Amino acid sequence: MWTADECSKYFLCLEGEVFEFRCSTGLLFDVNRQICDFKLNVDNCDITSEVVIPKPLLEKANCPEQDQLGCADGTCLPQEYFCDGSMDCPDGSDEGYCDANDDPNGATPCDPSCVLPNCFCSKDGTKIPGNLHPSQVPQMILLTFDDAINDENWDIYKNKLFPPEYQNPNGCPIRATFFVSHQYNNYQYTQKLWNDGHEIAVHSITHRGPEDWWSSNATIEDWFDEMVGQANILNRFSKIRLEDIKGLRVPFLRVGWNRQFLMMKEFGFLYDSSMVAPFSNPPLWPYTLDHKMPHKCTGNKQVCPSRSYPGVWELPMNQLEVGDFTCGMVDSCPANLSGDDVYKMLVHNFKRHYLSNRAPYGIYFHSTWFKKAEYLNAFQKFLNDVLKQHDVWFVTNWQAIQWIRKPKPLDQLHNFVPWGCKKQLDVSEMACSIPNICKLHSRVFQQDRYLYTCSECPPKYPWIRNEFGLD
Ligand SMILES: [Zn+2]
């Protein structure tokens, strides 16, 4: 027997993707009629069926009112009901065709009213901000690392990739962005990285599967629980200021349509970096989501947003080119590459950026990739090469956005404050040298888990909807 709560949920297959919807309070979903209706009228909720959604008529319905559009069956509804995430047409056609090209309330194409610092776009996404000549643009390199920070990778981060002697042209140590998910994360190490000037960003609490869930099923509430929840955990157990948590990357890069970006706008996340852009020469610059995105939504079965999110930045993931292949994350590049191949790949793609429009060169890692000694060596060799250049900077994602908002030519960068390393920390924000090792019961995993933090141990293992680990 299904509960009323379960019977108010329903699923739609839209353009090959499954979406979860929910009827308004008190209504249940009628599978045969495909509508939400009062309880008394619905007796078929435990039947499952697949639905083919017809295309809505929109303007072709010639609706009597100005701001109305037509469902596939000719029903007229206000335009804002289309692609708002809840089904209003009797045939569901208002929610059936909602990508950036079909959404009748979708973002408009890039236009000249979009100006820095808060809006940035160009027709094909390759334009340099501030119309600088490429020779005046610092070549930014954005290293990012996904998932937990712990003893599996601490030595790599601390000693192999970020020893103090690797420095940017202004004498500050090179910096990167860490997209942190909760399970097995060490919050003392995380706090140290933040203290050192790296950027800590959000990669969800659970990192749950199935992969499709993120793009198709996660509700706005789920997005809040996962992403804002992880920001709260980082704030509580690593003391990271909430205002320093600027961005996120979705697990498996499964972008979550407008639901994800609504959550971001509401909470105040300032950028996403999950969209894998189609391979492009020259590569793409980051852009704001005021207007329609400048590239197709293709990578990794993504469901990109269709609406406008003024001031929210997207740092699209430009792919690496290696022979006939292209790859988003470095570890999704062909597995048979030798260390020498990897070095050549890093240099080749560096040149694709450096010798064209100098769009930020993103290199996206999972730390396990460095376990292959020849890959670590190849990467270090690449680092040593490019650090000799006076116009190459390893910066965090947020540092890159700050430059894009106020582009400064190369000769003015030595005192560009956002790229400095004079961060003022309160004593209470400094990582301890010996953390609390909290042995905590997890109700979800039905076992004990360890949590490393400079803060006090919570009573229970923190998890989604109980991010502070209260009893
Ligand atoms: Zn991940």
From TrEMBL:
Keywords: Disulfide bond
GO cellular component: extracellular region
Domain annotation Chitin-binding type-2: ranges: 1-47
Keyword NADP assigned: no
Gene Ontology MF terms in the entry: chitin binding; hydrolase activity
Cysteine pairings via disulfide bonds: C71-C89, C83-C98
Any one Gene Ontology BP term: carbohydrate metabolic process
PROSITE patterns: CHIT_BIND_II, LDLRA_1, LDLRA_2
Keyword Disulfide bond among record annotations: yes
Protein name: Chitin-binding type-2 domain-containing protein
